[in-house]
């Protein structure tokens, strides 16, 4: 397939990460797709949000919208916060998103009204409040430790190299803006039911209770979509277990994005 004819894939990274988290997936997809890994506000080379109003998921989705319009449609992949942005993007431009893959979208607001599980939403609010207080006192590293250990388990922060800790700590104010955007996001499950493109929602068997429940709500609300729970993975599965996650993405895109004439053995994507 000629480069100009290749389907476009847009990749949206997680909080405190950057487009670099997708390097191995970009490499796997590059022979058959035009791949665009977006930097979200305050991450990678993109400056933090400085708008007059608070940051919203729609503001983040607007970063990817020109790529969808330029390509006449694209396939979208997102992880965590990037997965929530991917869902927002899909509801904003349903005719331009050809297919959707998410890994554990952090749609926290769904938990606030989830009878029997509101404590999960309150737990996230408690973490965000503590992050805000630490940032107000100039304790970026302490806020980052709280964030990392919440998602990856106690002691995860201490196991990171000092350079990685510094990089993550520098993004904490942007991460807090993202938490705030998620708490205010009005996206409803009823909006997702209307989506007709192929969709795959992936989660990890070792994820935290918050994202496990959100994955359950997605399965209940979107039975027509594909849902997979991958072994050994926690919330950071696309990074810690990139080989297995990337293969699932490639298999999905191979089936839904490439014409039969362009398909080659899946070993070409491994």
Determine the CATH superfamily. Alpha/Beta hydrolase fold, catalytic domain
CATH class: Alpha Beta
Stretches with pLDDT under 50, minimum 5 residues: none
Count of discrete structural domains = 1
Rg result = 18 Å
Give an overview of the whole structure:
By secondary structure, this protein is α/β, with parallel strands linked by helices. The protein has a single domain (3-108, 187-269), classed as Alpha/Beta hydrolase fold, catalytic domain (Rossmann fold, 3-Layer(aba) Sandwich). The protein has helices at residues 23-29, 57-71, 81-92, 109-112, 118-136, 140-152, 162-169, 172-184, 189-193, 209-221, 237-240, 242-257, and strands at residues 8-12, 34-38, 74-79, 97-103, 199-204, 226-230. A 6-stranded parallel beta sheet has the order 2-1-3-4-5-6, with helices on both faces. Helix 1 (23-29) links the parallel strand 1 (8-12) and strand 2. Helix 1 runs parallel beside helix 12 (242-257), helix 2 crosses helix 3 and helix 6 packs across helix 7 (162-169). The longest helix has 19 residues, at 118-136. The protein is globular and about 55 Å long. The mean pLDDT is 95.
């Amino acid at each position: 397939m000629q480069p100009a004819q290749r389907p476009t894939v847009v990749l949206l990274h997680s909080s405190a990460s950057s487009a670099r988290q997708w390097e191995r997936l970009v490499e796997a997809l590059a022979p058959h797709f035009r791949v665009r890994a977006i930097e979200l506000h305050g991450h990678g080379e993109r400056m933090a949000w400085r708008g007059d109003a608070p940051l919203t998921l729609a503001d983040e989705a607007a970063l990817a919208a020109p790529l969808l319009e330029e390509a006449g449609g694209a396939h979208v992949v997102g992880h965590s916060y990037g997965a929530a942005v991917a869902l927002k993007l899909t509801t904003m431009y349903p005719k331009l998103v050809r297919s959707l893959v998410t890994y554990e979208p952090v749609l926290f607001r769904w938990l606030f009204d989830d009878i029997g599980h509101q404590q999960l939403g309150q737990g996230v609010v408690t973490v965000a409040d503590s992050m805000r207080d630490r940032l107000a006192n100039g304790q970026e590293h302490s806020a980052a430790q709280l964030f990392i250990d919440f998602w990856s388990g106690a002691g995860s922060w201490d196991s990171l190299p000092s350079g990685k800790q510094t990089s993550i700590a520098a993004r904490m104010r942007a991460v807090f803006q993202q938490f705030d955007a998620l708490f205010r996001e009005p996206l409803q499950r009823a909006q997702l039911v209307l989506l007709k493109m192929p969709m795959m929602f992936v989660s990890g068997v070792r994820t935290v209770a918050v994202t496990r429940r959100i994955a359950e709500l997605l399965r209940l609300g979107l039975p027509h979509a594909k849902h997979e729970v991958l072994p050994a993975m926690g919330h950071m599965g696309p990074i810690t277990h990139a080989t297995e996650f990337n293969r699932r993405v490639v298999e999905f895109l191979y089936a839904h994005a490439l014409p039969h004439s362009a398909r080659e053995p899946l070993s070409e994507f491994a």
